[in-house]
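User: Some background: our group keeps a shared notebook of sequences we're curious about, and every so often someone picks one and asks for a predicted structure to add to the entry. Today it's my turn. The entry only has the sequence so far, pasted here. Could you supply the structure so I can complete it?
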Amino acid sequence: MPEPTAAVDDARALVELWFPDARAAWLGGSVVLGSATPGSDLDVTVLLGGPPAPYRDSRRFRGWPVELFVHTDTSLGHYLRQDVRAGRPTMPRLVGRSVLLRDADGSGAQWQTTARALLAEGPSRLSGDDLATLRYAVTDLLDDVTHAHDGHERLVSATLLADESARLLLHGSGHWWGRGKWVARELADLDRTEDAAGGGGTGDHRNTGWAARHEQALVTAAAGDVSLLLAFADEVLARHGGPLFEGHRLVGTDPGARDPAQPAEATDEADSAGSR
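Assistant: Of course. Here's the predicted structure to add to the notebook entry:
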């Protein structure tokens, strides 16, 4: 198991070596959150004054796999806001729940405070087309699992259903969501939050141990019994407006369609010029 002190020392050393002009740097991820494994990496976010940032890079340093997230002020603000809108707090967590490795001008502490505030506030609940689209996806996957042609097809669809129904449960409740291991972690956090609040959901829907039920549904689905997973997804849908198929309509975008505000002559001239 990686030692947190060694992780911080090594992360600070790599910043000194690779980014001597960095304005700020933070170490986040599992080595800071207390969930490190022998395969954990160093998640280091770096703030530069300008180019070559922004970029992401993967390297090795002193035996550690290292994920670098290199930003300017504007790019860091952009990705923080983007993650909040998506309800998946990758960058807010990397900066907000971090060890400050360098702070040359005070920006490190300022951005850390901003990220912590975003984490505490949480995402907005899904609504409108975003909520409808996810309800539609879960409804469609329910049908795929129920009417699968064979075991392989059923298991693949069941895996997607488990993931999308957890996403609907979490983001639809105004809670952060995630992929992979973060599905389990966010469901467990939702349980703690709803337990502390005396129950979650709306109406008669109350917290019933979402993380444990999700895990058991996956275990039994892998063994060929999808009944618990179907029940889990049904309850999640009921909590967020019910199944949705008929009447679900989204307006698309046609890049080739003429802008009604642009005169036809101007468009034709542009087309002619482009063909020369």
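Suggested note for the entry: The beta strands are 24-28, 42-47, 55-61, 64-71, 99-103. The longest strand covers residues 64-71.
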